[in-house]
Design goal:
Shape: globular
Distance between the termini: 49 Å
Number of helices: 5
CATH superfamily of the largest domain: TonB-dependent receptor, beta-barrel domain
Structural class: mainly beta
């Protein structure tokens, strides 16, 4: 009776399950917080030790509970209350990214509950409850801290080597080898338990490389390349995953996001790339995969960071990151990321600027309920630059700085996002979460665009182009996550419903010719033209979907992931030419998207997996067959097999083999070239290999290699077998750093980056080829106490290369040798 009363009182004070079940991952304390000023180190020796993370691991001895702390922890005294063993760590507090409560039900046979909570007087209570009786314990001091050996319901003298170990260690940073991600399953699942290829680019890599835009951050990701479209594409920044575009495939904390501007990483904790179809959880999309940006979240302890960067081509940037509690009990926490950048370019007359403001607030309303409010405002402006002409013989012979636009040609965009995430625990096994987001952006694209290049004269014909309007996107969903067992089989079920509404009201101008320009002898007119929109659209797209996923643990080393989703997408689009009546189009599509995968772990460090996934993408609602009927959605399907191996606890190897087919691709109607028919298919198959983590103390590396065959597999035209545009057959990347660990040079580090892309088809007709390139980057940094200084070098050997091409046979040159210097102070 005493135990039951004690447990009820204790559970009443618990916060809800870790935010990993309801909020995005990556809520860890910012990396390298141990590099502090001396005065702060002195303060921390007197202040309570902060336990910054709690995790459970299994090994040959049983279950291991690891407490990651920012300072040494004292030996905890223990006592028995009912069926529970209670240990209290003095002079310590929980400062978890997910809140200040941790609990894990049935972590091992004979153990019902492991829970940690902060008590008054700066004490952390560990409560370990046995099923049939109180566990016994023996505390010893180990080389890595304190070890508490426990057996469920046994006397101490009968303790065997398979005891449950609770080990108190120092700070453990995952660094270059993140162990979990939420993108693949919407739950915080270890990467080794996911039967699909997923790569995480952690903040440590983004920081060490000194990159601030998503396209640069993705250079270390296998199977991901840029496809251009900066500032001009209606689909936003262009990326290809496994050879397929990711139109509509960028998410932020699991919620669809969109921008025509380049995306900043200044408020991003990590980037997760899920390769292959992902419609089960994320709805309509392309079969190559998705990109999920994980936001920086509020922390329970105050943290402040100020950084300044200066770089080549008149680039200047300042950024601020502040976070901490707003109340004494830390139930309300905030974070604010703010950055401003003014940049030039190696391209003549090209420049731009970017302002980013990202506030977020988390409120623990009660022991079982929490809400997170978030927002973002981004203001972008930059010169529109389409690159230089390219012919079958290669690029035109002009300097890579040659700009053939006009300096008044400009892309600008104001974008803001507002939303919230609500999380509630129904009981110890079930939790609910609900999220809503509103996004609005207003782009303005105004520049003479290339229309035709005359190879004989060097003249480029240009068109007066303008694109404007307002775009609005509403997202809302509700999900339930439950854990239960059917006999010896464990389940983690995700049930969800989702609704999206997209309202687009763009206007365009593109019919009038602008003064041509000669690529060899450019004469800029500098004369703006009148903005007179002539084509208008008014589109409403509504999508709702329901989905079910079950993560099944049949055996500790055999896991199954199964899911299915049903979507309905309704489009109502109108088009109008100036002076003509408005034309209306409506279309409704529906589809089931299944997913199935299995993971087998013959030994603990190795996972073997196989999976099948599908995707669907509705056709554009204003397109019609020759008989007036609508097009069917494009369907993608993928088979994948692979292996994931933890070579050490800080170094992981991943291998994937896959075959993707995208079907119902539109091709020209052989009987009427003004229309299309859905008889086309494109395919992508290949091998991916990646390695990431810490090789030796201070030596980190992330590297990947992709062998890819992406081609047209069916078509009405004579292009069957042609390579897909901008897709290399071979892709390799390596980024590695080494930091001296001791001595007078402790904190000094070096970085090296190698990036290789083989030659690529410039367009689908394979009329020209972009040459291969090998680029080398480097870095030099120094860390001391609470500050860091670094120097990053891009294109160390000044290699001439091209990043991507467009359908008009214009290519974008890569940047030459460039430097950026950055200083960051944390306090």
């Amino acid at each position: 009776m005493i135990y039951k009363l004690q447990r009820l009182m204790w559970l009443a004070g618990l916060l809800f399950l870790p935010m990993a079940l309801a909020a995005p991952p990556g809520l860890a304390v910012p990396g390298r917080l141990e590099h502090r000023s001396q005065s702060l180190d002195q303060y921390l020796t007197q202040a309570p030790a902060q336990i910054t993370a709690v995790r459970l691991e299994t090994d040959e001895l049983g279950l291991r509970l690891i407490l990651e702390a920012a300072a040494p922890l004292e030996v905890p005294p223990t006592e028995v209350v009912g069926n529970a063993l209670i240990a209290e760590i003095p002079n310590a507090v929980l400062a978890l990214a997910d809140g200040d409560i941790f609990e894990q039900f049935a972590p091992a046979e004979g153990i019902a509950l492991v829970a940690l909570t902060t008590l008054e007087g700066n004490r952390v209570q560990i409560a370990i409850t046995g099923n049939d009786g109180p566990p016994t314990a023996d505390i010893v001091t180990g080389s890595n801290g304190l070890v508490l050996g426990i057996l469920p319901g046994q006397a101490l003298e009968t303790a065997a080597d398979d005891a449950l170990l609770i080990e108190v260690t120092g700070v453990v940073e995952e660094g270059y080898n993140p162990s979990s991600a939420s993108t693949a399953t919407r739950t915080d699942t270890p990467l080794r338990d996911i039967p699909q290829s997923i790569q995480v680019i952690p903040q440590a890599v983004i920081e060490d490389r000194g990159v601030t835009e998503l396209d640069r951050a993705l250079e270390t990701a296998g199977s991901v390349v840029s496809s251009g479209g900066r500032g001009t594409s209606v689909f936003g920044p262009g990326f290809l995953i496994r050879g397929f575009p990711i139109r509509g495939g960028i998410f932020r904390d699991g919620i669809s996001t969109f921008s025509l501007a380049p995306l900043s990483t200044n408020d991003v904790e990590q980037v997760e790339i899920l390769r292959g179809p992902a419609s089960v959880l994320f709805g309509q999309g392309e079969p190559g995969g998705i990109i999920n940006l994980v936001s920086k979240q509020p922390l329970s302890e105050p943290f402040y960071s100020v950084g300044a960067t200066i770089g080549s081509f008149n680039t200047y940037r300042g950024d601020v990151d502040v976070t901490g509690p707003l109340t004494e009990d830390r139930s309300v926490r905030y974070r604010l990321n703010l950055s401003y950048e003014n940049f030039g370019s190696f391209r003549d007359l090209v420049d731009g600027e970017r302002l980013l403001i990202s506030p977020t607030l988390t409120w623990d309303i009660g022991p079982n309920t929490s809400i997170n409010f978030f927002g973002q405002y981004a203001r972008d402006r930059e010169t529109i630059d389409q690159g230089i002409p390219f012919t079958a013989a290669g690029p035109v012979n002009v300097p890579r700085s040659r700009f053939v636009g006009e300096d008044f040609g400009e892309f600008s965009q104001d974008q803001f996002t507002l939303g919230y995430r609500l999380n509630h625990d129904l009981n110890e096994n079930w939790s609910l979460r609900q999220a809503t987001q509103y996004l609005q952006y207003s782009p303005r694209r105004y520049a003479p665009l290339y229309d035709f290049f005359d190879e004989a004269t060097g003249d480029i014909e240009r068109t007066e182009y303008f694109g404007g309007g307002t775009y609005r996107r509403l997202f809302t969903n509700a999900e339930a996550v439950g854990r239960f067992s059917t006999g010896s089989i464990n389940h983690q079920v995700l049930i969800g419903a989702e609704y999206r509404n997209v309202l687009e009201q763009p206007e365009f101008q593109f019919s009038n010719f602008y003064t041509p320009i000669n690529v060899f002898n450019p004469v800029y007119t500098g004369i703006p033209y009148a903005i007179e929109p002539e084509f208008f659209r008014d589109d409403t797209i509504s999508t709702w979907g329901v989905y079910l996923q079950d993560q099944i643990e049949i055996l500790p080393n055999l896991k199954v992931l199964a899911g299915i989703r049903y979507d309905v997408a309704d489009q109502f689009r109108t088009t109008q030419d100036l002076g003509d009546p408005r034309s209306e189009f409506s279309q409704s599509d529906s589809a089931f998207s299944p997913r199935f995968g299995v993971v087998y772990q013959p030994i603990e460090p190795i996972s073997l997996y196989a999976s099948y996934t599908r995707s669907f993408s509705p056709s554009f609602g204003a397109s019609r067959n020759a008989n007036g009927s609508t097009f069917e959605p494009e369907i993608g399907r993928q088979f994948e097999v692979g292996a994931k191996a933890d070579l050490t606890d800080r170094l992981s190897l991943n291998l994937a083999l896959f075959d993707i087919r995208r079907q119902n691709v539109s091709t020209p109607d052989p009987n009427n070239r003004q229309f299309s028919v859905q008889t086309g298919e494109v395919a992508s198959r290949g091998i991916e290999l990646s390695l990431g983590g810490e090789i030796l103390p201070g030596w980190n590396m992330t590297t990947s290699y992709t062998l890819l065959d992406a081609f047209v597999s069916q078509d009405n035209r004579d292009i069957v077998g042609n390579r897909l545009a901008n897709v290399p057959d071979n892709q390799f990347s390596l980024w590695s750093t080494y930091e001296i660990q001791e001595g007078n040079l402790q904190g000094l580090g070096f970085g090296l980056g190698l990036f290789y892309l083989s030659d690529r088809a410039g367009d689908l007709d394979n009329t020209f080829t972009l040459p291969s390139y090998f680029r080398t980057d480097a870095a030099l940094f120094y860390r001391r106490d609470n500050w860091r200084a670094q120097l990053n070098i891009e294109n160390l050997f000044n290699t001439a290369y091209f990043t991507s091409s467009d359908e008009f046979q214009f290519v974008r040159p890569g940047a030459p040798f460039g430097l950026s210097a950055r200083v960051v102070v944390e306090f």
